[in-house]
Amino acid sequence: RRPMTLGMLACQVRAGEIKPDQSVDKWKLFRALCEAKPLLGIGDRALAVLNALLTFYPKNELAQGNGLIVFPSNIQLSLRTHGMAEQTVRRHLAALVEAGLLVRKDSPNGKRYVRRDRAGEVDEAFGFSLAPLLARAEEIEQLAAAVMAERLHVQRLRERITLCRRDIAKLIEAAVEEEAPGDWQGLYSEFRDLIEGLPRSPTTAQLELLLDELTALRTDILNSLETRIKSTKQRGNADYIERHIQNSK
DNA sequence: TCTCGACTCCCTTCACTCTC
DNA sequence: GAGAGTGAAGGGAGTCGAGA
Fold first, then answer.
1. What residues does the Plasmid replication protein C N-terminal domain cover (predicted)?
2. Which nucleotide is nearest to A199 (CA to C1')?
3. Residues A134, A68: contact at Cβ < 8 Å?
């Protein structure tokens, strides 16, 4: 009933390539997953379900030797996700499988349960395999690092944009106060258009573009003010020389 | 050993809420 | 207003375990 995609198949193959001695701290990996979630195509609620699923794994270290199958009922998962509706839990489980973070270990009828031996020990469990998490641990850590680096880059861009905005506003204000010649109203409108044209949630490329445009605008304003200062200085010197000549007469 | 109720799984549909 | 996400309800199907 559940379709198997090529992605899921690749995930299963990868999960089968885990080294016997490979292990990873499940909570450390979960924190990396929280960082990397935009690149993995999962949301907060799916992570809440994964978090609940990990609480059913008895050890802190995910390792082949500890077994990698968890088999909680949807009701238990619902309880550990603070009352998330079972239907929603199921949807997010499907999303986690789709994202290649879990593999279903289906029973013949596709249901989740555990088969115990005569001694009451788990003989075979049908549920979810956490093997993909272990197999992809290194990749997930790298994705998390990339997301953090990107976030830092965006933070720096925003800081530079703020500084540039402040500079431009001050320069235009000063030019208007000094009554410097130039279309300051037009430049101010251009400045406002650039700022207001930025979407509420801009992409990195949009921020980079805005910074470039603001930097160019600031350079234009500075050049025009510098030209004005130079011409004022020259006029001042010329006036002085003229007066000097007249006095000498 | 067999039967049957309880339990659990999955799926679909529909209505509602929230965000963009 | 459209689309995504969510929750409730209902139905089909299989397993488990107690009792006959």
1. 2-175
2. B20
3. yes
